[in-house]
């Protein structure tokens, strides 16, 4: 378990660049997460297009230039807002987004492939999913969430931390009686993007932060469906 507490330090700049707005009123450590999840609306759009200069991509068709990845366009969004509990800890799945990402050069494409542990060469554009979620600790003591183990598509394609999945919540420590907002990103095969109707999420356990023993078992797998 202890090794999982170190996973966040190994996440690439790519994840930091795409997750910079999942702030939490209960946990100040989450202030620097996802640029697609910021809530600032002032001057967020340019006057001549659907380009978003700052703030979240909130409507299908909106896009922004990401320094690490290139042009990111929102092509699908769906609210989830469902909470699941394991002992005294809650996971709330908030929403689902899908992005079309067009790198401006091979370096950006290669960086993305390396960061996600892609087993195949990325297309241009390529496609990412994002699920925003929160971790709530209802106890007085800090707890570590060991993350999302895998996400499986309707056609059976599995994304996990070694192949196609970047989970900012893996190894996250949540203070007593606090809530931490976070997100998980995954690569979707080009031929799956138009038929992505559901995803199954497999969770890991919760651990005590003192000795990394199990504080609560993993949640049962959750399947979310989209319109």
From TrEMBL:
Superkingdom, natural source: Bacteria
Compositional bias of kind Low complexity: 23-32
Disordered: annotated span: 20-60
Record keywords, A-Z: Signal
Record's signal peptide: 1-21
PROSITE patterns assigned to the protein according to its UniProt record, in alphabetical order: PROKAR_LIPOPROTEIN (PS51257)
Name assigned to this protein: DUF5067 domain-containing protein
Organism, as annotated: Companilactobacillus baiquanensis
